[in-house]
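Q: what does this look like with adenosine-5'-triphosphate bound?
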Amino acid sequence: MPAKVIVRDLRKHYGGVHAADGVSFEVQDGEIFGLLGPNGAGKTTSVECVVGLREPDTGYIEVSGIDARQRPGDVKQKIGAALQTTSLQDKITPREALRVFGAFYRNRAEPQALLERFSLAEKADAPFDTLSGGQRQRLALALAFVNNPELIFLDEPTTGLDPLSRRDLHGEIARMKQGGHTVMLTTHNIEEAERLCDRIAIIDHGRIVASGAPHELIALSAAAPTVFLATTQPLDSGLLNRLPGVHDVTSEGPGYRFSTAHVTRTLAELMKLLEARGIEIGELRVQKATLEDVLIELTREGRE
Ligand code: ATP
């Protein structure tokens, strides 16, 4: 099946800043695709070029088989977007906004159904300037659905939300996928990207530096696994340093953290050592590389 979004060699600069510096990626039908990167990496610029809100300098953009730079109007009928730039008049109500926005589209959803789906029924007739940040965020999502879109674009959808609202929104995004929508989102939140996305592209300085499923990206990390050990009796860190493969022993709270390239061999020796000295384990945890390790490794250049 052809990709839902194809972006090739997208470039956009502002003076000397190359906000998108040859960005290429594809979003497959029915997946949740994340553009993950630090502040200023070029996420918003890229997504706004794809949805037709910014004019790229050069590059090819295809959405649902349509050349987006040649036929932007046709693309707009098929997509929904909740972007950072969504702003509404102070006194417009959610019900009115949904009606007004829906009027731009041939295929439109029923405002009442959207108000209920996005838990806005109680605030349906409240002026926009009286809505909380979370309610405004939900309204932006509801507005993205006014045209029953095939594809949804979300720019930093959970920024500013409390943990409960963020979890609700994650549930809603997962339901979009179950409902057959393709979702592209931008985020600088690693946990959000890992939890929600089928595939992620990491962007830095306007370039995609890696892409793949979260587990594929994690496999790229050069970071060695770390072990956290706390014992009920005192333990000399020198003993840990002498175990095979162990390096970077540091004390952390009630115990020690260290890295090892050979977890099983190191732990086997550790167990012998502790047993011989009659030392009991209070806590033992092994942590493999995380998406955060990969993101830091890949985006560190130019920041140190
Ligand atoms: P954030 O996570 O902080 O929202 P981002 O990854 O979305 O960042 P962009 O907003 O795309 O990054 O910005 C990329 C770069 O382009 C930044 O250096 C930014 O200052 C610059 N930039 C973006 N829009 C403009 C503009 N309209 N005029 C001038 N510079 C811009």
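Residues 14, 17, 19, 37, 39-45, 188 surround adenosine-5'-triphosphate (CB under 6 Å). The chain has a mean pLDDT of 92.
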